[in-house]
Design goal:
The protein is α/β, with parallel strands linked by helices and about 200 residues long. It has helices at about 10-35, 50-55, 110-120; strands at about 5-10, 40-45, 65-70, 85, 95-105, 125-130, 150-155, 160, 175-180. It contains three helices and nine strands, in the order E-H-E-H-E-E-E-H-E-E-E-E. The mean pLDDT is about 90. The structure holds guanosine-5'-monophosphate (5GP) and magnesium ion (2 copies). It comes from Spinacia oleracea (Spinach).
């Protein structure tokens, strides 16, 4: 698995430090605002590692839930019309939701999810994404209520794996984030984005 990585972008130590900084900001903002318990909603599967690290640094009581969105399949290109394939278990009416993502690329997935959480009655929606690829944004992210945007690292326009992120469902368990070697894409039919 390690042999498939061309470049490590963020090491495990760098990630840990950044996660603590993000959690500190969230601790500060959440304690200043809400009386209701915030709900952290992870976008499965990619956000599971980040969500687990993040919530363990949150010092207030929070609830945790997941949604699943289908758009990527086994390739590297989004089909542009994500659909919610696994619903929330928790009720988010009048709740502050912190939507936790692995990476924001075109913004299609997040926009869809924010609309959805709004329609479920969330009073505000913040976004906390581990990585952000602003250069590839097609849809702007419209937060709800007093929601804020928290971003871990700005990612170059490369397809990355590790720390929860996959290629064809592999590499999620790498403790760092890296760029895959080109030979790893061979045999996969779907075209990958130009890097
Ligand atoms: P968007 O809807 O913003 O275009 O895509 C968001 C989703 O696409 C992310 O949640 C992630 O699952 C996937 N994605 C986008 N860029 C990358 C990448 O570089 N690596 C991996 N592994 N997944 C990505
Ligand atoms: Mg994701
Ligand atoms: Mg994926």
């Amino acid at each position: 698995m390690e042999d498939d990585i061309e470049t490590v972008l963020w090491s495990s130590d760098e990630i840990s430090k950044r996660v603590i900084e993000l959690a500190d900001q969230l601790n500060h903002d959440l304690s200043a605002s809400s009386t209701q318990l915030p709900v952290f909603v992870g976008v499965a599967t990619g956000a599971f590692v980040f969500l687990a690290d993040l919530v363990r640094r949150i010092s207030l009581p929070v609830s945790v839930d997941f949604v699943r969105v289908s758009s990527y399949g086994f390739g590297t290109l989004s089909n542009g019309s994500p659909s919610i394939s696994s619903d929330l278990k928790l009720d988010v009416i009048d709740k502050h939701v912190v939507l936790v993502e692995d990476i924001v690329d075109t913004g299609n997935t997040l926009s869809k999810l924010i609309e959805y959480l709004k329609s479920k009655g969330a009073s505000s929606v913040s976004v906390c994404t581990f990585l952000d690829k602003p250069s590839r944004r097609k849809v702007s992210i419209e937060l709800v209520g007093k929601g804020k945007f928290y971003g871990g690292f700005e990612c170059p326009d490369k397809f990355v794996v590790g720390y929860g992120m996959d290629f064809a469902e592999v590499y999620r368990n790498l403790p760092y984030v890296g760029i895959l070697k080109p030979r790893c894409y061979q045999g996969i039919k779907e075209e990958r984005p130009k890097n």
